[in-house]
Design a protein that fits this description.
With 305 residues, this protein is of the alpha/beta class. The protein contains ten helices and twelve strands. It has a five-stranded mixed sheet, sandwiched between helices. Strands 9-8-10-7-11 form a five-stranded mixed sheet, sandwiched between helices.
């Protein structure tokens, strides 16, 4: 495949239309269409589904895009090495994760790793799990930590760790003496929950439906900090989150985190994701090894190429 073919293909895949790609490349729409048609004919595969309002990738197109993005990143790395750009002070590690990881756990891990690796800089993006996976697939970040329930093409799951949802409360709370709880136990207490759309809220709502009850949030928020502070300041409040999200902050604040036995709340796992088949620089491998040692074991997760 010629570089020009791939460049035009990449632009159409990214923008979603021939006209937008033509504007980005500063060429005529017909030139873009011709390059895409030539590429598809040479491969004997349909890379796009032509739609009234744009171009959607086929499964074959998704795989070619993953290849193109991976090679672009690896080429950039080789060029940097040849130019001597990757010196001590210029190593950068880009991470994307949801708020549950960004509030306390991941910054603590980064701080500890950075103390022993002064040559590594960090860039951290706080997005939802689906966006984190998309960013690592597109090469915008090196590592994604996600609470994903599935894996997309172009992503490799390095490891998968338990992230069951439990109940956070004050150690003086009436439920704090129980070893385990169910969602039915929470019915008489004010709840602090994540906004609709998060994996915590989705699985909690499923668990409530299966238990035949309807529980509403007294306070809903889109950051773990809101839930944590509410539980700290309100003696009867119960917050929903995973133990790993508040690890290192529970006992020091006089709180406890209790497991919930409802099956849907145990379905979630925390995945460490990278771009499939990408050759990672040494400082990224070193950080992933350190991170893996700090995460609870839950066996290997699914893989995708």
């Amino acid at each position: 495949m010629q570089e020009l073919n791939l460049r035009y293909f990449h632009s159409v895949a990214k923008t979603g239309s021939l006209s937008a790609a033509a504007q980005e490349l500063h060429v005529a729409v017909s030139a873009v269409s011709r390059q895409i048609t030539n590429l598809e004919q040479r491969l004997g595969l349909a890379l796009f589904v032509r739609q009234p309002r744009g171009m959607a990738l086929t499964e074959a197109g998704e795989r070619l895009l993953a290849y193109a993005l991976r090679n672009e990143l690896e080429l950039a790395g080789v060029i940097d090495e040849m130019r001597g750009i990757q010196k001590r002070q210029q190593k950068t590690l880009r991470i994307a994760c949801p708020d549950g990881m960004a509030w306390h756990f991941l910054p603590r891990i980064i701080a500890r790793f950075a103390a022993g690796h002064p040559d590594v800089d960090f860039e951290m993006k706080v997005v939802d799990s689906a966006q984190a996976s998309a960013l690592v697939k597109q090469g915008e970040v090196d590592i994604a930590l996600t609470f994903s329930l599935s894996v997309d093409i172009g992503i490799r799951v390095v490891s998968s760790h338990g992230a069951a949802i439990g109940a956070l409360m004050a150690s003086s709370h009436p439920l704090a003496q129980k070893s385990t709880l169910s969602v039915k136990d929470l019915a008489d207490y004010p709840l602090a929950l994540a906004d609709t759309g998060s994996t915590v809220r989705y699985l909690f709502d499923v668990a409530c439906r299966l238990a035949g009850i309807r529980l509403c949030a007294r306070v809903a928020g889109n950051t773990l900090g809101v839930i944590y502070t509410l539980v700290c300041e309100h003696a009867s409040m119960v917050g929903l989150c995973s133990a790993i999200s508040v690890s290192g902050k529970v006992e020091s604040a006089g709180l406890v985190h209790k497991p919930l036995t409802d099956p849907p709340l145990a379905q979630r796992s925390l995945q460490v994701q990278v771009m499939a088949e990408r050759q990672l620089p040494g400082h990224i491998d070193a950080f992933m090894a350190y991170l893996d040692g700090q995460l609870p074991a839950a066996g290997p997760g699914p893989t995708a190429s």
